[in-house]
């Protein structure tokens, strides 16, 4: 957010919320808002990265387990069933 946007914001709300206008006019408020936006952006980027990388790691681990003959006998059918239940909204609830 730039200063012009903040100025426009507290010009628009000056009559409705004078206390909030005084808060927005404080010089430290810009710094606080900038820090909060950076923290939220870093958190969001970390969450997104975790979702993508975590999914890739889980897939790689499942593929590694699928190569083991003992585990693949039980894992492949259960993975097929879980994929079916996850992708099909009309699957009977007794299957999932």
Structure in words:
The protein is 80% helix and 0% strand. The chain has one domain (3-87). The protein has 4 helices and no strands. It is elongated, with a radius of gyration of 26 Å. By secondary structure, it is an all-alpha fold.
Estimate nothing, just give the exact number of structural domains: 1
**String of helices and strands:** HHHH
| Average pLDDT over all residues | 75
Give the end-to-end Cα distance, rounded to a whole number of Å: 47 Å
Taken as a percent bin, the fraction of beta residues is under 5%
Oligomer: single chain
Helix content class: over 70%
Shape: elongated
Number of strands: 0
Protein traits:
96 residues; mainly alpha; elongated
Q: Helices, strands, pairings?
A:
Elements: H1 3-12, H2 18-25, H3 27-66, H4 69-87
Structure in a nutshell:
By secondary structure, this protein is mostly helical. It has four helices and no strands.
